[in-house]
Structure formats: C-alpha cells, structure tokens
Amino acid sequence: MMAAIAAAGAGAAVTVYERGDRPGRKLFITGKGRCNVTTSVPAEDFFEHISCNPRFLYSAFYGFDNQAVQAFFESHGCPLKREHGERVFPVSDHSSDVIRTLTAEMERLGVRVRFGSRVAGVFIETSPGETEDMPHRCVRGVRLADGHVEAADAVVVCTGGASYPATGSTGDGYRFAEEAGLSVTGRSPALVPMEIAEDWCAELQGLPLRNVTLRLDVVPEPGQKQRKKRRPLYEGFGEMLFTHFGVSGPLVLSASCACTPFGQPLALTLDLKPALTPEQLDARILRDLEERHNKNFKNTLDALLPAKMIPVIVRLSGIDPQKRAAEVTREERRALVDLLKGLRLTVTGLRGFEEAIITRGGVDVRGIDPSTMQAKGTEGLFFAGEVLDVDAVTGGFNLQIAWSTGHLAGISAAGR
C-alpha cells in the first residue's frame, strides 16, 4: 500500500494485486490489533535496532524516515501517540484506522486494487546482452493464476515473508525472486515465542511481568568448559508473558532473534527485581518477614510478587511454606534473593511461522540496489518489505522498514 501510494503520488498508473478479500490483513493484527506504526527513536539510533543488514536500509530510511511516517499518517487524518519504549500507535488504538488511512489515500490517488487476484509469476522478457553470460532482462508485467498476463512497466513485490501464512504471506515473493535469478537466504521464524522445559510455566499461563530483566545465554554441553564471562546472546528490560507452552511478550520476542536458527542449549534468566541490588532485596524481604513474623512463609510474599506467582516461587525456594516467617534463616533468605534475581528457564525450542511476527531471511540484499530497491540485472523489478533479508527487534522497527522500502520502491518504479 505504501509503495502504491508513493508510485501513484509520483504520477504512475498503479494496480495492486491482492490475493485476499481485503487489504492489510497482517497489518490488522500487528501490535495485538493496536498497530505499532513506527518508533520515535532518533534517526541516528534507528539502525542499532536492526538485526540483519542495517546498512542496506540507509537510502530507504533517510528518504522516508520515522518522522516522515508519523507526519504522513497524522496529515492524513490518523493522529498518533507515543508510548513507553519509543513505540508509536494510533490514538484510537485501532489498527483498522491505519489501514483506513492507507486505503483512503490509494483511492484519492486513483490506485486500482484487485482483490482475489493471485499473481503466479512476474513476466520477464530476456534479450541478448552485451555478453552471453549477461543477458538483458526487463519486466513486462505479471502473470495471474488464471493464466492472464497483465502488462506493466514495473513490478514491486511486497508479498511479505512466511510468517502468519493465514494472512496471505505464503512465500510467493521468494519464488518470484529465484525465477528472476536472485538468491534467497534460508528462512526461519523470528520475533517468536519460546517453548520452556519447566512445567511450572503452565501454572503461570496468562501472567504478564513488567519491568523485569531477561538474559539469554548458551548453556555449556555436559563436559564442556564454560568460557569466562561469556557475553549473553541477549539482555533486555521490559515486559514478558507466561503461556501454556513457555513464554512470550516483547522481551521474549526480541530475545528470540538471538537464537535463530535454534540448535544449541539455551537458558533464560529473569531478574524479577532489577531495580534492587541483592542487598536491598534482602533487606526488603527481611522487613516483610519481620512485619509478618507470626504468619506462614507462604503468606509473606504478597507485597513482593503477583499472587499467581507466589506458590511457584515458594516451591522453587525450597523453604517450607508452613514455616513461620520469624523462623526463616539467613541462608534461606539469601537463597530466595538469588531465586528472584536469577529465575532460570530452560529453552527447548521456538514456536513456528504460524506465531512468528516476522521472517528471518529472504531475498538476498546483495542482489538488490539499495538506492532504488530494484533487482540487479532485471529492469523494472523491485522488492520491498519483509520479503527482503532485513529484520529488526520489536517496537515498530519492522513496520518502519516496510514503510521506508515500500516508499523508495514505489518512487523508483514510477520513474521507469
């Protein structure tokens, strides 16, 4: 949609081929239906959040950055708000308003949208080039699933990746790229929930945790020596969620990018009280125990932990739940501090494409001109969005990649 708007705004006659029955189906479910449109981080910090091929995005981003995206939506009747973590959402908290803004602008610019039209392939004409090894390739249109060929001077492929295939992103763009002679890197689910070995996670299903620190580490194999002070694969602060299979939420999704492809023993360590040093937490626990000295230990943690979590922590602490608070020893208290500052979870796997927010991997960017988004060696063929081998952490960065690359591809295609 952004590519179509940019191309039509530059004077091109544009047709969007949408295999579904409505536009923006994946956009509709982003941000749990609220649509984290972009990020408000300063432009100079944007690339620190890009996980793969950040340099490829320089031209696209600076040509249509996060400030330009915010200005676009707000000037077209979709007011935005900034929330914690520099996330930007529509004021209404409805992704449908973002889609409505895009579709209204397409209509205003005369963009035709053909629903229920699946593209089977890109029609490319090949002619002799300067050498036998380098034939000249030029886009002439698209071939639809019914066999009909629609003529076009340029084609922009914005088919998405392989995540959430029910929304229509079934990987067609990868095939289009390979048929045009481009390389496609291996794909795997990214920004995806994690499966955990510990069965007590299921007891906490639905419990969100806020303001916690999460660390992801490689666990040494049996008999393997631990490297000294090995850096964690990921470390972050924010929100997470327990599920029936393990953990999810923004922190976990971002951490998942550091362990794909999954193939090594990994562990998550949670600091449930990152604002307190071990000494401060010990003093806090001691005070709570003293104030409730006649209560059983299991009834002393209500001011420290969510109610749903208390039975699990009591069990993991090894402290007798019926023990009087006044009888909890210093050693038991310190063990409880260690547990709260280092709750360990064993990662057994990642969820699949059906639950992945994005796809890691895609069209190899070495075959794409970053200044235009045009495929090298094929005139008139452009790629944008998740179909490319570019991705980022959560927080609106992946949608910003879509807006920036789509905008550049649309303008470049219109200039053909």
Protein described:
This protein is α+β, with helices and mostly antiparallel strands and 416 residues long. It has 2 domains: 2-188 and 358-414, FAD/NAD(P)-binding domain (3-Layer(bba) Sandwich); 194-350, Helicase, Ruva Protein, domain 3. The protein has 12 helices and 23 strands. A 6-stranded antiparallel β-barrel has the order 12-15-14-13-16-17. Strands 7, 8, 9 and 21 form a 4-stranded mixed beta sheet that branches. β7 and β8 (134-144) form a beta hairpin. The longest helix has 18 residues, at 397-414. The mean pLDDT is 93.
Question: What's the helix and strand layout?
Answer:
Blueprint: H1 2-9, E1 15-18, H2 25-29, E2 38-39, E3 50-52, H3 58-63, H4 66-75, E4 80-83, E5 87-90, H5 95-108, E6 112-115, E7 119-131, E8 134-144, E9 149-151, E10 155-157, H6 172-179, E11 188-190, E12 194-196, H7 200-203, E13 208-218, E14 234-242, E15 246-248, H8 250-256, E16 266-271, H9 278-291, H10 310-317, H11 330-341, E17 343-350, E18 358-360, E19 368-369, E20 374-375, E21 378-379, E22 381-383, E23 391-392, H12 397-414
Parallel strand pairs: 1-6, 8-21, 10-22
Antiparallel strand pairs: 2-5, 3-23, 4-5, 7-8, 8-9, 11-18, 12-15, 12-17, 13-14, 13-16, 14-15, 16-17, 19-20
Helix pairs in contact: 1-12, 9-11
